[in-house]
Amino acid sequence: MRALPGNSDFSDFFSSMFGQAGQHSGFQGRRQQAHKGRDIETDLAIFLEDTLSEESKTISFMIPKYTADGRVSEVTKTLNVRIPPGVESGERIRLKGQGEPAGPTGINGDLYLRIRLVPHPLFDVEGHNLIVTVPLAPWEAALGCKLAMPTLDGKITMSIPANSQTGQRLRVRGKGLIKKLSTENGRGDLYAVLKVVMPKTSNEDINKTWQALADKAAFDPRAEWSEKV
Questions:
Q1: Domains in the chain, ordered, with CATH?
Q2: Is residue 75 within 8 Å of residue 62, measured between CB atoms?
Q3: Which terminus of the chain has a lower count of CB atoms within 10 Å, N or C?
Q4: InterPro entries, from UniProt (predicted)?
């Protein structure tokens, strides 16, 4: 049998042979990890205006409650949650320890909020940009005008150039959604898509005015057809 080096004991010997993990495997390695409660995931519907705000929203969701005798019931849990500005649809927000409880010796699970943007009655979303359709009367498109246009921050005055066309896009800088991952922490843009709309009612005098305009303008909107056919 090989002799132990001087000033060594059996603990040093086993440490050199098997390492510290082997020395403590009978103690720390057998400790049972703390039980963790189940994570909960739920949808959170928010409006486009909420993505610009730093105010808290009140949410309610169901979690299981365990009684001392092992019975389970569901209770409603209510939280005030601050939604990060610039949050996007489909994004998941983690609230640590707000999920299923794990009992007195365990660790509560987490709550995951899956963001869902509610469709807006006026604005469509393209990345961080917003699109709004701007209806124009024929004379507004022909002569140009100034109008009050809605944005997520309130109304602004917008100038419509003369001889505007349906489908024409006018850009308003910095009135879109927050670019959360941008180094400049900026915002996207708002695009106004023009749409010429005819009046739904008419009368003889109006028709005469339209006819006089047609005679004076001598404009053929389909002139390019004759060049291609």
A1: 40-117 (2.60.260.20), 123-201 (2.60.260.20)
A2: yes
A3: N
A4: DnaJ_C (IPR002939), DnaJ_subfamily_B (IPR051339), HSP40/DnaJ_pept-bd (IPR008971)
Least reliable range by pLDDT among 51-60, 126-135, 182-191: 182-191
Q: DSSP secondary structure string, the chain?
A: -PPPPTT--HHHHHHHHHHHHHHTTTTGGGPPPPPBPPPEEEEEEE-GGGGG---EEEEEEEEEEE-TTS-EEEEEEEEEEEPPTT--TT-EEEETT-SS---TTSB---EEEEEEEPPPSSEEEETTEEEEEEEE-HHHHHH-EEEEE--TT--EEEEEPTT--TT-EEEETT-S-B-TT-TT--B--EEEEEEE---S---HHHHHHHHHHHHHH---TTHHHHHH-
CA 228 to chain centre: 46
pLDDT per residue as tens digits for the range 113-142? 999 999 999 999 999 999 999 999 999 999
User: Distances from the Cα of 4 to the Cαs of 1, 12, 54, in angstroms?
Assistant: 9, 10, 68
∠ Cα 185 119 182 (to 5°): 10
Please report the pLDDT score of residue 2 as a whole number: 47
Find the mean pLDDT for residues 95-113. 89
